[in-house]
Amino acid sequence: MRGKAFPIHKWWSFRRKTCFGNSRMAIKTPVGTKVEAQMLRAVFEEAPSGILIADLAGVVLGVNPTFAGMLGYTPSELHRKNVADIVQEEDHRALMQELLSGGRDAVTSARRYRGKSRAVLLAREHSVLRRDSTGRPRYVFSYVEEMIEAGRGPLERLSRREREVLEAVIKGRSSKEIAARLGISAASVDTYRSRIMKKLHIKDLPALVRFAIRQGIASI
Hints:
By secondary structure, the protein is of the alpha+beta class. It is 37% helix and 24% strand. It has helices at residues 34-46, 65-71, 75-78, 89-101, 160-170, 175-182, 186-200, 205-215; strands at 17-20, 23-26, 50-55, 60-63, 106-114, 120-131, 137-149.
């Protein structure tokens, strides 16, 4: 497959639904037909959301022009790159762990990308684990509505996993509940909580709640 675009017709099957932002589109044409391939190619290339498809080793199998443009690349420049070349390593590792070990085939999260200019860009994305006919995980589809240049605010000091733990703590979940949701140990949750407090210079939970309210990630 090296050097060739990943076949579009393999990405969808009869009546498979896929997410583009908040909308859903169902493909209802016979599998394997030339018409279907052409239609899916048009949907993929003209989608207003960025789409990234990678295998479990992190090799980029395809991106649409919207996604490539968000990072300042062309689709051909990103083809066969490794995701580690464009995503902050910790964010990618945490996403894969959540998809493969957390018992969840779909995850909505924030992930930090590196553009061609080396600027760090923050994306809110929906990632889906795709399996083959035997149920074996094969590919990860990520749908990105927009990317914004990461600022220097306090939340930018936190890793993706730390932001997830912070949001869960603010919602009142216990370490055990957070661990079960994220597929990590309760001890790891406590470690992340301590790192968050240290990075944000916050000493107790009430102060953390007040911080979250000011940042708009919790309501009064």
